Protein: Methyltransferase
Amino acid sequence: MTNTEARTTATDVADRDLIGRLAFGSMAAQTLRAAVRLGVVELLGDAPRRAADVAADAGAGHQPMTRLLRALTGLGLLREHAPDSFAVTPAGALLHPGRPDSLASFVRMFTEPAIVRAWERLDDSVRTGEIAFDTAFGTDFFSHLAQHPELSADFNAAMSQATSETSATLPHAFDFGRYASVTDVGGGNGTLLAGVLAAHPGLIGVVLDTAEGLAGAPDTMARRGLEGRYSLVAGDFFRSVPAGSELYLMKSVLHDWTDDQVVTILSNCRKVLPPGGLVLIVEPVLPEVVDSAAGVTDGGITYLSDLNMLVNVGGRERTHKDFTNVCRRAGLALTAVTPLTEAAPFALIEAVAD
Structure:
């Protein structure tokens, strides 16, 4: 075999391995889901345990549990210290629901059959541009959530967990101290606003969301000792945004909606924006040309999120140019985009009245 042939063979093997890992991706996701639903990480605890003991506590069979634990080990979430003895890795520990940085609800939500089912129709959405979720369930995603309180609670918890990293990073990436008031538009249980208020004692805040979205906000604020520094407004950002703040903040809101809907949300913010006020948008900003190396590094998550918006809600992830256009249509001028490196792939987008 020549050197060229050897290199070609090695490349071919790597390429085939990549396709294999991607094809098995949904199986890996369901393995995570099973681990969360069975409480595997909680049952393992802080020291190695025998699979038989974990199985007994979970009400599962010894052999099937061993196979699940070995699959989780293969995924890097557990370690097998000795035959039939397993311990949790730092990554696996993030599946413990009792941790403040837990991703258990995030995993539960994004492996939820209601989310996954629409993906089975991705090719239809690509052909037609229509929202696959609406076809599969006969209603839109957010109406479906409203009709299923347990799923809605999981969704809100997942959004909170997905926001925790940004909540720790954003308060130090922007000079909130120059302002007295901020409204978090679509702020859910207040995780993001709580991080901002805790880091800036002179600031007061408002959370705008649906009544369901706000359900956990009092507890979030109480845990941070923020009583008296916030108010909650149940409303619809497509109809109006409460006046009275200098800053209007929104994270992972605009990507849920079409350009026309985004313009409506931003226009409502523009209507109440005081002189010197700012609209702050926290979203990924896609490059104009895909950085293939970066995509491989993060597993292409931002682009998968873009497809998730397509099939489940009809929104999209956007480029700098896209954000400039929707801001301009809403009477806003985009003035700065700052990558939040500690909360990648998110960036902070600043816009002022045009």
The mean pLDDT is 93. The CA atoms of residues 186 and 209 lie 5 Å apart. The first helix runs from residue 3 to 23.
